[in-house]
Amino acid sequence: MALPAHDERTLPAVVLRDLDRQPLERSLDAVQTLIDQHGHVIVVCSHAAPSGVERRLHTVRSLLESDRIALFRPALPPLGLAVLARQLRQLASCDLSPGVLASAGRLLTHYIHAGAVLGSVTRLDRVPVGLKAHAKSWVPGSQFGVVAHPEPQLVRIGPEASLAGPEFGTWMLVAKGQLQSDWAATTLAPAWNVQGLREAPLPAESAQWWGTGKLVEFCTYLPDLSVLYQLVTSVRQSVCHWCGIDVIGDRCVFCSATPPVQHESHTPTG
Fold first, then answer.
1. What pLDDT, on a 0 to 100 scale, did the predictor assign at position 177?
2. CA atoms within 13 A on the CB side of 8
């Protein structure tokens, strides 16, 4: 998830390794050190990570009794999540408050299209797979184009195969696994009118997330910091009524509080 920085302004990522296997005291010390150094911590965690990792993160947050730790687990494939984490690292160099920066993650997920080219869909459970696709998956040489976010799509790759993509200018990032396929770069990227193409190593969780190691994962995203900053700052900000931090959206990412319900007044009028 720690993709290379786009420029010198992009802040480095801190990788919390083996959280579910190391002693609890070590996890507590690592997170407390980050809070002492930076003030607030935004933890981006994949749904493909072991369940023990999520439990450990919640345990650490509870034991530290801190409202300066935001736990963020969007329903993105691993490569899309890595891109989102890098976008937050880009924005961290700007004059955004911690609450607005953490809230920006939810906003930016709407501008990410993430999918993969798969050699088999027999073990794919992240996207609905029909019986016909399952049957074709057993045919030797079959390949499938899949979009998991923002809307599930699945097609068997052929001359007429197409997937709906973003309606705005993006770049594409491609991570190759054990599948020999250039379809994402040579066919899908031109169809989606991407403005640039880059390659990255395949995330460690990708094979588990997609149900196969025979894949090529892809993701389109907005690379320009000025565009990201404009998107985030154009959204109305509010103050969390519980912890007092600035946020965007309807839920505080640090204390999880939602705005209080506004009850209608029943005072008689004359």
1. 94
2. 0
Residue 127 lies in a domain: yes
Phi, psi for residue 241 in degrees, rounded to 5? -70, -15
Does any domain span residue 41? no
Nearest-angstrom CA–CA distance, 223 and 67 = 30
| CATH number, residue 187 | 3.30.1180
Indicate the average pLDDT of the chain: 89
Which domain range does residue 167 map to?
Answer: 113-221
pLDDT tens per residue across span 50-69: 889 999 999 999 998 878 89
Instruction: Confirm if 235 and 252 have CB atoms less than 8 A apart.
Output: no
Ramachandran angles phi, psi of 255, nearest 5°:
-110, -5
Of residues 26 and 139, more confidence is placed in: 26
Element (H, E) at 238: strand 237-239
Rg (CA), the chain: 21
